[in-house]
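Appendix B, example 12.
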Amino acid sequence: MKQLLFPDPPRDFAHRRTVKIVARAIHGACAGVYAGALVFGVEADARLPWAIAAITTGLFLLAVDLHESCAILLQVRGLVVLFKIAVLIALPWLGPATVAAILVLMVVASVSSHAPSRWRYRMWAGQGRVKASHSKG
């Protein structure tokens, strides 16, 4: 089971970096449009496709990382992803704080994705027991 979840070496596939770059760009664009729609009070029906697209592309990015190794969940970058998912799940109960929460997520996402790799790839759990991935992209 450990080899399935935490393969050593981590799994890869052809053009992985390109796939992640394109998916990340689409994800950022969709999340940006959704955040802007919230800020400017666009009706929920018009915002919904952008929310669905942002969530879908985010889950796709997570799936690609999990395919490589579930070790991402034991790294700071995975912890940030889990935090973002938790906040998104809480959105229906945030009421007027929804806009602020989305903007905080945008800042957290930007800072965490541009932080030094020594910080993003740092293991917060499983150190010494799991081979962490360090792939680019």
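Residues 15-120 form one domain. The longest helix spans residues 44-68.
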